[in-house]
């Protein structure tokens, strides 16, 4: 396993409150139940994180798998980030049937055609929310896993929630990929920002339903 991946997994585990580490690792599903039983969750977090890394070494975890654990953490603790709301617009009134596979393919293709060094992960949730995690590199450097953008898109609405840790120059690339993938015409930022993703959703979804 790559040293950078090992360190990333270790730091992700350290962020999780100790009494939630086991549940989050179970939700991750990368380590088997038998492996999880070998962990002592009563020791200090630093020791737990190192033991988790050792188990991941045995299974040769890569950055894609490590990113999934980070996504689970961010889904449970969205308030750790600052979120902005964007609204997309269509030219006509036509509604198309949303195809998640097509969306992912177009999104990846568009972003990668603009920037080769980028890690993209998707995770779907039961409330029709698609979570996207993007780690950005440059033409000459690998993606920085510690400075990621998170996007939450509810496919039945024109709203996108973006939490960005990126160079300003990458935000237009992200917006472009979203518009292309979801078959909209354009996108603009609304004057709504908050650490509370749920309250932002309440505000815009109420407006949309009215």
TrEMBL record:
- Places the protein is found: Chromosome, Centromere; Nucleus
Nucleus recorded as keyword: yes
Query: Which domain of life, per UniProt?
Result: Eukaryota
Which keywords annotate this record? Centromere, Chromosome, Nucleus
Q: Which InterPro entries match?
A: CENP-NAC/CAD_complex (IPR052011), Chl4/mis15/CENP-N (IPR007902)
Q: Does the keyword Repeat apply?
A: no
Which coarse location class describes where this protein primarily resides? Answer: nucleus
> Where in this chain does the entry annotate a coiled-coil region?
none
Query: Cross-referenced Pfam families, in alphabetical order?
Result: CENP-N (PF05238)
What does UniProt give as GO cellular component? Answer: chromosome, centromeric region; nucleoplasm
Quick one: a GO biological-process term for this protein?
chromosome segregation
UniProt lists the family membership as follows: Belongs to the CENP-N/CHL4 family.
Designated name of the protein? CENPN protein
Q: Which organism is it from?
A: Atlantisia rogersi
